[in-house]
Amino acid sequence: MPLEFIRADITTVQADAIVNAANGSLLGGGGVDGCIHRAAGPGLLEECRTLGGCATGSAKVTSGYDLPCRWVIHTVGPVWRGGKSGEEQQLASCYRTSLALAQERGCESIAFPLISAGIYGYPRPQALAVAVRTISAFLEQAEMRVLLVFFDRASFDIGRQRFDDIAEYIDDRTAETALRREYRRRPEGGLDNAPLEQSVCSAPLAQEDVAPRPLNSARAAADAELARRLAAMDESFSQALLRLIDERGMTDVACYKRANIDRKLFSKIRSDPAYRPSKATAAAFAVALELDFAGAQALLGKAGFTLSNSSKFDIILGYFLDRPKKDIYAINEVLFAFDQPLLGG
Length: 345
Hints:
Mean pLDDT: 88
Number of strands: 6
Order of helices and strands: EEHHEEHEHEHHHHHHHHHH
CATH topology of the largest domain: Leucine Aminopeptidase, subunit E, domain 1
């Protein structure tokens, strides 16, 4: 997918370029900077000595040396001084400049740490918001796979209030499901406890209904019924998706970018009416098309999926489908925080 959150050591990530959160000297330091220099070997430091340092908000590029990437893009993030000293603009510039350098070198993929969120003290939820906002603006105009890399769970933070709100929503929905199950187990619970001898259709079968048919006649009737059902088959996921795109007056490009979907995957879906997407891909298109819960449920049904209160993924998606503005990156931040699959392809 174009923008992805992953937990990993950035020095092991397979990408055309990785970004180093460097200091102004570019000569190595602590945190991510030190890890990258150690993993790359002495050649990286030797080349960095020739660059003459780097200004805050800017970036410079070197070879990857012993790292599993072609390029290392060194960028200098701002030190947090309370948010009133131009930190947000400088941090956004780090991402924009790094992405531009990667694009100039023909990179198809790039991996970022969360810049300035370590010893430079930028609050993690705010640093994440700047990163996602800047990267998503870039991806509106460009084709590239961008990874935001977090070393561990503690390094990813969407904000306590936001996390608690979603957690409470999940608890409420799972509690409702548990209550419904308990009700069905009670003697007064209704249809689930109906006596087995009760039948939906209590009318006696006519004699001709129980008499065996000749084998050839039964087979012909079965074949005719199958043909009838196939002729009445509903539209496929691909057909429904393309119809909805047209009905909303969207372009294909706008739709797959809003869905956080790779262009190549969208081409497969468009060209193959029988294409069966993953649930995360189908849900991503529901968000891109700004469908409500019922509309999303219908679209996912075309691919053989449903949304229920028995899955955290489904509950979180439902939480956002109930809201007028649907931002796929905001949804993915929450899914990532709760260890769920991300939307996209």
